[in-house]
């Protein structure tokens, strides 16, 4: 998948992938990681969890920490069910627009909230934009940046059937899928997964969290990312 990454004052293109950003995992095992951004939501997160449970799938939920207040119960349910949480900052905004100082402060504030439920290790920048300074900051705080290799534009195109077709067309061992939660987006994700997960299972794929996918990577990859 092609991602654009913007440096402050400069436009940089990393279509082939940045070495410090995880887009996919080299593996021959029939396994893909599912990642879901922008939760939690008191209604749609549970609807997504129901579909995941139905097909024995696991996911990494990149959470916006300011949405956790009054939704603590659903986060606890999610973690108890074997899913993983990641850091998607405090608000739904382009992370790259923050100053270096504000970015580090917001990263730490989100981490403090998320750490009440689990030990997050994966970071996804808001709007998918990042630069070298951001990567250096998250590394200091023991995070690794993750984007993905399958993004069916579900945040912009309200068509679960189309999203499902894109996901199934692009599915291959080691892929990282990006979908979204909260409100209408979360409703569409639950519907999309109800179409995709049974077909992936029929193809022999396991759908797992990011940490589980990393464990399925080849030895050279595991040596770099497992610790």
Query: Runs with pLDDT <50, length 5+?
Result: 1-5, 7-15
What share of the residues does DSSP label as strand, in percent?
15-25%
Number of helices: 8
The topology string of helices and strands comes to EEEEHEHEHEHEHEHEHH
Structural class: alpha/beta
Care to count the β-strands? 10
How would you sum up the major sheet?
5 strands, parallel
Q: What percent of the residues sit in helical stretches (DSSP H or I)?
A: 25-40%
Identify the CATH class: Alpha Beta
User: What would the CATH topology be?
Assistant: TIM Barrel
Distance between the termini: 26 Å
Mean pLDDT: 91
The CATH level-2 architecture is identified as Alpha-Beta Barrel
Total number of domains: 1
CATH superfamily: Glycoside hydrolase/deacetylase
Outline? globular
Please name the defining characteristics of this protein.
single chain, 227 residues, alpha/beta, TIM Barrel, five-stranded parallel sheet, three-stranded parallel sheet, 8 helices, 18% strand, globular, disordered N terminus
Account of the protein in words:
- The protein has one domain (22-225): Glycoside hydrolase/deacetylase (TIM Barrel, Alpha-Beta Barrel), CATH 3.20.20.370.
- The two termini are 26 Å apart.
- The strands form three sheets. Strands 4, 5, 6, 9 and 10 form a five-stranded parallel β-sheet that branches. A three-stranded parallel β-sheet has the order 3-8-7, covered by helices on one side. A two-stranded antiparallel ribbon has the order 1-2.
- 44% of the residues are buried.
- The chain has helices at 44-54, 72-80, 100-114, 132-140, 160-170, 183-202, 210-215, 219-225; strands at 4-7, 10-13, 21-22, 31-39, 60-63, 84-87, 122-123, 144-146, 176-180, 206-208.
- It contains eight helices and ten strands.
- Mean pLDDT is 91; it is low at 1-5 and 7-15.
- It is α/β, with parallel strands linked by helices.
